[in-house]
Amino acid sequence: MVHASDQLLQHLHSENKLSKRFPIGLEEQIKKWDVEKIRSFHERWYFPANATLYIVGDIDSVSKTIYQIEVRVSILPSPLLLVFN
Q: Given a cut of 80, is residue 13 above it in pLDDT?
């Protein structure tokens, strides 16, 4: 049975891996993680600029909704920038 969320991912992300699996990784990979790996992964990759926000439902004002999101996201800390030489 295919869930609606799986169908949505397949439709929206047909051009990349997200259409085939969740971005967090394969189950056999996740089982090998320890607390430090999870913390490090979260600090490295989980921040607003690296996220996708889906809004579903009746929205009275798109501009007000965008403004409210921007206000809330702007107070979140930015990730450390890594420089590769």
A: no
What gap in Å lies between CA 17 and CA 21, rounded to an integer?
6
Q: Which pLDDT score is estimated for 64?
A: 96
**The length of the chain, given as a count of residues:** 85
How many Å apart are CA 26 and CA 53, to the nearest integer?
Answer: 22
What is the mean pLDDT of the segment spanning 62-71?
Answer: 94
| Gap between the Cα atoms of 66 and 75, Å rounded | 15
Q: Please tell me whether residue 85 adopts helix, strand or coil conformation.
A: coil
pTM over 0.70: no
Determine the Cα–Cα distance for residues 37 and 30; give it in Å rounded to an integer: 10
